[in-house]
Every structure is written in C-alpha cells, then in structure tokens.
Amino acid sequence: MVAMVEEELHTDAVEVEEDHTDAAEEQHSTEEERHTDEAEQEDNPKATAVRRRRTPRTARELFDVLPPLPGFRVEVIEGKLIVSPSGTPEHFLASDELAYALRPLRKERGWHGAHGPQICIDGPRYSLQPDYVLWPRDCKRWGNDLLSTGVIMVTEVVSPSSVRDDREEKVRLYALGEVPVYLLIDQVAKCPSVTVFSDIEDGVYRTIDSEPMGKLLYLPDPVNFELDTSIFMQ
Fold first, then answer.
1. Which of 87, 104, 136, 170 has the greatest number of CB atoms lying within 10 Å of its CB?
2. 46-83 pLDDT, tens digit each
3. For residues 187 and 72, what is the distance between their CA atoms, to the nearest angstrom?
4. Beta strand pairing status for 193-201 and 204-212?
5. Exposed / middle / buried, residue 114 (Cβ in 10 Å: 0-12, 13-18, 19+)
C-alpha cells in the first residue's frame, strides 16, 4: 500500500514537472514572438515612429509638432507657447512696403528676404516669427527655423496686441540671439516712429537710433542702407 502511494506521488510530481515544462515552452514562444515583432517594427520606419512617439514635455517640443495654424503667429518666448493673431491689414502693408524698398539691395547682395519665417534664438532655442527677415543664402538652421546668429536683420511691426513683446521682450531676445540689426516699426505709438537697434555688446544692443515716421533712418552694417520711413505712413 505504501509503495502504491509513493508511486502515485512520484507520478503526480512528474506530471507537475511536465506542466512546468509546458509553461516554460509557452513563455519562450511568447518571448520569441515579442522579439520578432520588435525586429519587424525596427525594419518598418512608420511602426518605429509610432512606437517612439511621446507627449511633448516643453513649449519648444510642442511647437515642433504643431501643424500649421493659418492666420496665427506661433512663437516660443521664455518657455511659453504664444499664439496670437497675425496682424491687421496696416500691419501687413508696412512689412510689404519694407520688402519692396529693400528689394534692390537684396538682389544686389544675393540675400533672401521674406515675411514671417521662424527664427530660432541660438542658446535658449526660443522660436520667434518676425514680420520681415533678411538673411544670407548660407544662413544656418535649427530644424526648419533660421538660426539667429546667421540672420542679417529682423523687423517687427508693432500692433496693439504686441506692444510689450515688440518694444521690450524682443529687443532683449534678438540681442541675446546676436541678430545684428533689429528694426522696429511702431505705428501705434502716440507719435509713430521707426527705431533701429544695433551694435551688440554683452548680449545687449548698445546703439539705438529712432526717427519720427516720415524721416530718413540709416540702417547700419551689415545692412548699410538709408531707409525712407515715409513709406510706412498710411
């Protein structure tokens, strides 16, 4: 009787071991399938992109994945994502008149000029969208943005919603980004004026020249151009 019980116990033990073996084989099979799926994903760029996608953690990362927003200006300033209306008709007219006035100079020197390209401030990687930009053909980039250290001149046209940013914040940020010339067209001031900031030293514009709208204003090197600001009077 005792021998029969021992035999039954032994048989049960074997059956348990066989169950354990089946579980191990099943786990091994699952591991092989997982590794195969991962290998297939690595061979498939779309699958890899999906697997690596993650939620943006900073304003700059969110800016980089945003789709185009027609009719809005999207910028990253001081770690904040700022979305604002793109401007009034007078706003666009001012930048258009500037583009027309600078066209001969741009053609002569082989520069590019356009409304609204994004500028990456070298260092903190803020992304600003000036109303008009001059840049050389070989200007360096940060992704799709023009890198600030390679830009020749940026221009902002002040609107009621951008007074503080254009007159204060962007003066500091463009100097920080080593943009040689910052032109500020202020049509909303009590006395409309045009101001040029230049001569950067220790991250600050040291030379500021301002004229009432309608006067001549010299744009210093590397632009070296006398601008008739009466073109902005509407």
1. 170
2. 444 444 567 877 766 766 766 665 556 676 776 777 76
3. 20
4. antiparallel
5. middle
